[in-house]
């Protein structure tokens, strides 16, 4: 019964395509040929002729006629399927096999920063005695992140360690803007209407309670574009780490910078001086005429050649791993020092300057807030829990507070 219902529909479809107007009955069996005539109008002599064939012979005959039509439809009008997105490709890759040194750099960077995030969180929890709140989130466009935040701790008033993995599409205006610093973003002179991208990184901020213990910031990230087939296009690493004290202890600044210089020198003798200068210039509150802190290193667009991708990744790994041994000893030394209410007030004022930089000048904050589907809470986790702004406030001349401001207005060489 099913074949009887199917055959008329298939016959009508074939007839509408003009495939039954010149049936070559010579291709059919002798018994089947007797039931057909080469009628120019329909391809069959009559209803009685069709009925005489029987259901099976009738179906076989129609399939013989319809097969060329189906073949031509497949060849001439192939089914149009959307190509998988970069995010979908990576999900499939991670399903098929674990991430190794032979995996795409995207997946290796994601794995590395997630491992480092948990190591840093465990170390800060041990130093404070308070657990982080960990929020895992997803992006509809692909990717997601893990935001870990500690608030009102014993040692840290606020600490945030966040990992983000972002898949998205750059529109043409964004491509044109980014191409100013990245000539290899697209090949040739024609700018495409859109371009898939991947970005992953780890960001952290630690604001201690004690004004004698410095705030620290760190960020290391990787950015990559992709072709229509998922192949990697332009890529670069960026990041750095910097120290922001409320009260200057020269040995702290020196030790922090020395740890960064040791990492830089192990990979390239030119890195530290170049990246230290970049940090002093980038973390600068132009409207205040002073640096945000005593600096560290900062770099962006590290994409020397494709052959150097492994070299750059090795540098990123060592730089991030150097954070805990360079910062925790400073916190241990300062966290229990005595301080006055006036010194706590100065810390709040310095935090206000920190907020000003992050909201007015920081490119990372601006990029995050303008990315479609941005998770604002994660982007603004770097802001302190408390801060203060006093109108026309100036420190006493010759005071410890003024000594810090003098250094911020004229950056020093610490190693």
Explained architecture:
It is a single chain. Helix 1 (2-16) packs across helix 4 (55-76) and helix 8 runs antiparallel to helix 11. 35% of the residues are buried. The radius of gyration is 33 Å and the shape is globular. The model is unreliable at 1-33 and 35-53 (pLDDT under 50). It is 45% helix and 20% strand. With 415 residues, it is an alpha+beta fold. This is coproporphyrinogen oxidase. Homodimer. Keywords: Heme biosynthesis, Oxidoreductase, Porphyrin biosynthesis. Residues 30-50 are annotated as: Disordered.
Q: Bin the helical content.
A: 40-55%
One letter per element, helices H and strands E, the order comes to HHHHHHEEEHEEEHHEEEHHHHHH
What value does the average pLDDT take?
A: 83
**Physical arrangement of strands within the biggest beta sheet:** 1-2-3-4-5-6-9
Molecular shape: globular
Kindly report how far apart the N and C termini lie.
90 Å
Number of strands: 9
Q: What is the CA-atom radius of gyration, in angstroms?
A: 33 Å
Low-confidence stretches: 1-33, 35-53
Strand content: 15-25%
* Largest sheet composition: 7 strands, antiparallel
Number of helices: 15
Provide the structure class: alpha+beta
């Amino acid at each position: 019964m099913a074949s009887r219902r199917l055959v008329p529909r298939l016959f009508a479809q074939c007839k509408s395509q003009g495939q039954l107007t010149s049936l070559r009955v010579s291709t059919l069996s002798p018994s089947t040929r007797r039931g057909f005539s080469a009628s120019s109008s329909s391809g069959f002599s009559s209803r009685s002729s069709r009925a005489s064939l029987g259901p099976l012979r009738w179906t076989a005959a129609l399939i013989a006629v319809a097969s060329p039509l189906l073949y031509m439809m497949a060849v001439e009008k192939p089914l149009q399927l959307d190509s998988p997105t970069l995010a979908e490709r990576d999900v499939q890759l991670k399903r098929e096999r674990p991430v190794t040194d032979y995996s795409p750099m995207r997946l290796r960077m994601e794995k590395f920063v997630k491992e480092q995030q948990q190591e840093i969180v465990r170390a800060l929890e041990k130093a404070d005695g308070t657990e982080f709140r960990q929020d895992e989130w997803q992006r509809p466009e692909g990717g997601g992140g893990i935001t870990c935040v500690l608030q009102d701790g014993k040692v840290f008033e606020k600490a945030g360690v966040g990992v983000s993995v972002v898949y998205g599409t750059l529109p043409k205006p964004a491509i044109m803007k980014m191409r100013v610093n990245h000539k290899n973003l697209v090949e040739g002179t024609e700018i495409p209407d859109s371009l898939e991208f991947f970005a992953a990184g780890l960001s952290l901020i630690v604001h201690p309670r004690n004004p004698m213990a410095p705030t620290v910031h760190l960020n290391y990230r990787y950015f990559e574009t992709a072709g229509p087939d998922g192949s990697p296009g332009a890529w670069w690493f960026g990041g750095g780490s910097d120290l922001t004290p409320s009260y200057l202890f020269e040995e702290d600044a020196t030790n922090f910078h020395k740890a960064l210089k040791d990492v830089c020198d192990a990979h390239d003798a030119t890195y530290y001086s170049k990246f230290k200068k970049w940090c002093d210039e980038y973390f600068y509150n132009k409207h205040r005429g002073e640096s945000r802190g005593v600096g560290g290193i900062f770099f962006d667009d590290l994409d020397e050649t494709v052959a150097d991708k492994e070299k750059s990744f090795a540098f990123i790994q060592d730089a991030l791993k150097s954070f805990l041994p360079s910062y925790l000893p400073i916190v241990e030394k300062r966290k229990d020092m005595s301080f006055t209410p006036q010194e706590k007030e100065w810390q709040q004022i310095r935090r206000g300057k920190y907020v000003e930089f992050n909201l007015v000048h920081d490119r990372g904050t601006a990029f995050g807030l303008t990315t479609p589907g941005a998770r604002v809470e994660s982007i603004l986790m770097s802001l302190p829990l408390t801060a203060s702004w006093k109108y026309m406030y100036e420190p006493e001349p010759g005071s410890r507070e003024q000594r810090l401001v003098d250094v911020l207005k004229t950056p020093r060489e610490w190693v």
